[in-house]
Amino acid sequence: MKFLRLAFYVLIAQLVLSGCAGEGVEETSSSSSSEINFDAYLGRNASTRSSVTDITSLKGKEFNSGFGVFARYKHNGAISSLMDNEHVTWKGDRWGYTNTRYWPNEGSVDFYAFAPRVESVKLVNKPNENNPNPTYIEFTSSKSPVDLVWGVQTGQQAPTSSTDSKVNFQFKHALARLGFDITANQKLVENGAVINVEEVKLYGYSDDKGAFDIRGYLNLENGEWFRSEDESTRTIYTWTPTGAEDGINYKLSASQLDHTCKKIENAPNSYLCIIPQVKYNPFYLQITYTVKQGTFEEKVTVSKDLIKVRNPPEVSNPSFPFEQGKAYVFHLILSLDPINFNITTTVGSWGVGVVNNK
User: Fold this and answer.
1) pLDDT band with cut points at 50, 70 and 90 for residue 51
2) pLDDT band at residue 163, thresholds of 50, 70 and 90?
């Protein structure tokens, strides 16, 4: 096998990271003839929250910043590994990696990328499959509470000049994202009421059961998921003012609603990222809070079946789909009377605006 050494064409990834929340940002870095120009564009509403994988987090200095790359060389029906979870990181003015690879002068190369990068990740088969060249990675959401993104470039061939020697990845969100905000009846707050939020809880058809399957296999070739359906692994999630943000226990942005704080949200690092799936059975969002007004004080715990929040009563087979790349925001509106507790839902693509509102 002959190889054309990339003496001056270091393998660089041009990142186009779509679907995050903030302002549109363009970044360009120029370099000497031994390097290559890098262009990255973030869609409008680009976020810098560390819980969201964006250009800022990819360029960071954390152990899992950057992205992992797998590469497969294909020629005359044979397939061999060229890169195995190679760690690509930002070098200040370019993307680079440690173990320099070479372009073959024949055949083509398929590249698969994911972020945040985890050293132990390998390409594996999904259950009941025995492909000699698998393209899946295994993922457990409760162990890795991150915004997983993926990118692919197939059929890449040796460059003919320095201007076309880049490998271009357009990263996409692999998961669905769940968040919420909490407000109160405005008249209640204006009349001097103080509401202390103790806990928000997300659970399945009973309060000792989890709602979501947490383990699956993401195909880096096309972004499709194989989800492991296992009720025993489903997790109950909670948000409290002092949550540990460990993948199960999350944190609220504040604990008290009053005339100075009119909204409580999940903290910036406390979004719930979910493997895409459709819920058919009841699952609940529950909140426990205390209302104080003068000498009056009452502790309240109320919950709503989110299947019913999503679907009007006349729907015969209600469901709640959590789709890849979509952000789901639940709006909890508190009242002195628990009967008047209300939840609405906004569903939108990350950074593309609202596409559905129920």
Assistant:
1) low
2) low
Region of 352 on the Ramachandran plot (φ > 0 left; ψ -120 to 50 alpha; else beta): alpha
Q: What is the pTM of this model?
A: 0.81
Cα separation values, 203 from 175, 237, 256, 273, Å: 19, 7, 23, 15
In DSSP terms, 329 is beta-bridged to: 179, 346
User: How would DSSP label each residue in 147-214?
Assistant: --EEEEEEEE---SSGGG-PEEEEEEE-SEEEEEEEEE-HHHHHTT-EEEEEEEEEESSSTTS--S--
Place of tokens 């390409």: 123
Nearest to 15 by CA among 192, 193, 194, 150: 150
What length does the chain have?
Answer: 358
Alpha-carbon distance of 178 to 212, in angstroms, equals 12
The two most distant CA atoms of the chain are separated, in Å, by 84
Query: Other C-beta atoms within 10 Å of 195: how many?
Result: 25
Q: Collect all residues with Cβ–Cβ distance below 8 Å to 31 and sequence separation of at least 6.
A: 37, 93, 94
Q: Say what the pLDDT of residue 134 is.
A: 97
Read off the pLDDT of residues 294-346 as tens digits, 9 standing for 90 and up.
Answer: 888 889 999 999 999 999 888 899 999 999 999 999 999 887 666 567 777 77
Phi, psi of 58 (to 5 degrees): -65, -35
241 and 272 in contact (C-beta within 8 Å)? no
Cα gap 332→302, rounded to integer Å: 11
Q: With contact defined as beta carbons under 8 Å apart, do 344 and 331 qualify?
A: yes
The helices-and-strands tally (H runs, E runs) of the chain is: 3, 28
* Sole residue written with tokens 């944190």: 251
Structure tokens given for 210? 């989890």
